[in-house]
Amino acid sequence: MKFGIRSRNVLINNELRSAVVLIGNGKISEILDYNTSGEYITEDYDDLTVMPSLIDTHVHVNEPGREDWEGFETLTKSAAAGGITMIVDMPLNSSPVTTDKNSFEKKISAAEGKLYTDVGFYGGAVPDNISELNSLRDCGVMGFKSFMIDSGLDEFRHISESDLEEILYELNKFSKVPLLVHAEKSEGESENIIDNEFSYSSFLKSRPGEMECDAIKILIRLSEKFDSHIHIVHLSSADAVDLIRKAKKDGLKITVETCPHYLYFHSEIIPERNTVFKCTPPIRNNDNREKLWKAVKDGVIDMIVSDHSPCPDDMKFKSEGNFVKAWGGISGIQLGLSAVWTEAKKRGFSIPDISKLMSAGPAKLIGMEKVKGKIEKGFDADIIIFDPESTFTVDSGNLFHKNKLTPYEGEKLKGKVIVTYLRGNKIYDNGVFTENPFGKIILKETF
Known about the structure:
By secondary structure, the protein is of the alpha/beta class. It has helices at 72-81, 101-111, 133-139, 161-174, 200-206, 209-226, 241-249, 260-264, 286-298, 336-346, 351-365; strands at residues 2-12, 15-24, 27-32, 40-44, 49-52, 54-59, 84-89, 118-121, 123-124, 144-147, 179-182, 230-232, 254-258, 303-304, 383-393, 412-422, 425-429, 432-433. Strands 1, 2, 3, 4, 5, 15, 16, 17 and 18 form a nine-stranded mixed beta sheet that branches. A six-stranded parallel beta sheet has the order 9-10-11-12-13-14. The mean pLDDT is 96.
């Protein structure tokens, strides 16, 4: 007997309407009128919003090798609680980093049997592994990741402009996968000096928006030269928006993401010495935040993903408040939808808008737009039940990722994920997970 989800607010074809979503063999088999009766069992969610689950294409799991930072089980549980049913893992900060076939196989082995959501993987593109890119692509990676500035890990070196040319030349030989780039560049290939290591404003000054603009100018030029899909990760500087807008207008294959923390926080509210907020590129001022929101509204920014990048609490040096020593990264994958909705609703965004940015947009980046990211017949039955009017105050004790330190602590957020379904299986329900993980490893050639 088929199973159905019934609600007066189901997101279908970019609008909310009353419907019953029938599920069979993990897929959406039919979408019926709300009052249709038949031989199926339904769960009735009344006026709660039924929408596609989120896809997070920028996550640092850190396993294998740095399981004390994060791991597949804790990460995917936290993702499911945040309404996410698929993540894509970055090739760092695990040990080894994912830059060849052997390290990729270790990553796969580490993930098996632990996944509460589906997981895909990126490969790394660094100066000394260009000859490995083809074999990594054959392993099934969703794309490749590079840094134009120090990544913070000696084993994942940043690339020069000439390296980028070699990488793009190689990628054009064998596949249509994106090159994802951390786009910051500084003179002398090193970060600017932080003149007061205990000051957020000094840290912010050391990573100005010009660093992003300088890097993005190079990426635009190379995208045109090689006719390549380049994806700019975690855009934080609105100074680069006009550059990107023009590149898109010119027909270049440039896509761009930003993150919840750049849309929710701004530098004026960050206390000095509070290293929990350190990330790179940094959270900038409120005027910049509003310009990012406008770029989202205008479609210049294609998607919103977490860049969940945790570390053990002591690596944040919170008690010391030292921005030079502190690891740069934000933990918040479980809270992304609520944080974005809290601010988006104030600016006139709708649930369909947010779904496009956090579900359909990321699905398209990894080539899964005909499988995931929509409530449509034949798609995976990856669905969440969302209460857009519910409010809650963030208590880090209720977070499921391994290290609980987060800048969202104590924030009052609007919108709460109630239930998460993965291929029709209820994997999360009001704080409770299924006993067995239903997640799968998703490789590029398998869909």
